[in-house]
Amino acid sequence: xVNQVYPxxxxxxxxxxxxxxxxxxxxxxxxxxxxxxxxxxxxxxxxAEQFVAAGAKWIASSRLEQIEDLINAGITLPTLMxxxxxxxxxxEVIRLCDWSLQSEMTVIQALNEEAGxxxxxxxxxxMADMGDLRExxxxxxxxxxxxxxxxxxxxxxxxxxxxxxxxxxGSILPTVEKLEELVALAERMxxxxxxxxxxxxxxxxxxxxxVLDGNVPERINHLRIGEAILLSVDLPLYYGYDxxxxxxxxxxxxxxxxxxxxxxxxxxxxxxxxxxxxxxVYEDRGIRKRALLGFGKVDYGSIEEIFPRDxxxxxxxxxxxxxxLDVEDAEREYKPGDVIAxxxxxxxxxxxxxxxxxxxxFID
Length: 364
Ligand SMILES: *Cc1c(COP(=O)(O)O)cnc(C)c1O
Prior knowledge:
The chain has helices at about 15-30, 45-55, 65-70, 90-95, 105-115, 140-155, 175-195, 210-215, 225-230, 235-240, 295-300, 345-355; strands at about 10, 35, 60, 80, 100, 120-130, 155-165, 200, 220-225, 250-265, 285-295, 305-310, 315-320, 325, 340-345, 360-364. It has about 375 residues and is an alpha/beta fold. Pyridoxal-5'-phosphate binds next to strand 9 and helix 9.
């Protein structure tokens, strides 16, 4: 193992825990149980523990290997698989996940058979597509027929409820009308099944807006929440929610300065394409002081997703393993060996936590 300090991601666990408590308690007041979604930090068990401490009822991820890590780390809450299952992963879903979201009868049939083989009951939430056009039944009559077949024929499946996902592909908002439509569908299904459903799962972070507004329909009693807790950026930034009780600095990404030099701001020579095959445009601002950092797109994805904390520092560009800053107007004088801190967003969070090149340090 190479013993390298930077790039480093610092994760403040008490901030994360307080974020989780703030959101989960507000949901609890409305009778909503929360599945803590940890895929944003690549399922780090230390992060999942904060959701557990804050009262999450499930730990959820979209990736099986993360769920396995959580179980191996001693997380004992029921696990919820968020991504509807591949037929090929059914045995592992049954082995690792107590709950899953599902939308295809062939897969649910296979889950039933496998659960029987492994001597388990597997709980599912049947997904309805309410317009965001990712996973879920579009034809709601077909969905109700499917639910009836599951109840009648699938001994090892507990069909615990229905749910929907919005705001991921189609950018659809969980308006009161959308959620009422979901509740109406659940009630139609209950009529057909002759029993109550345990859960109506009304979405993810974007549905937290309805909780904060106090207009979430009463029968919505389950949410799957990641971003609002992990980062708490989307609701204040895109929808103007004032959430002064949330920590927006759970993460600090740090990189080390390799080189500081005055250089022209426009490349010198004949221009082709950059390291990733892109045609770039370079503004000529004359000679400027630049700092070169020892991390790059492999670590965080794209320069639009990292935000220097120091004033006057501008990210000019990056290749796989280098990032170039303009520090001409910075308040600090930088030299090789200095460390520069960045805020990150959801996009860069998923990259840096997935990158084995980034040292992760948990702060209690
Ligand atoms: C990722 C995911 C969530 C959580 O989304 P956030 O916006 O991070 O709260 C919920 N449900 C499903 C199906 C997901 O894939």
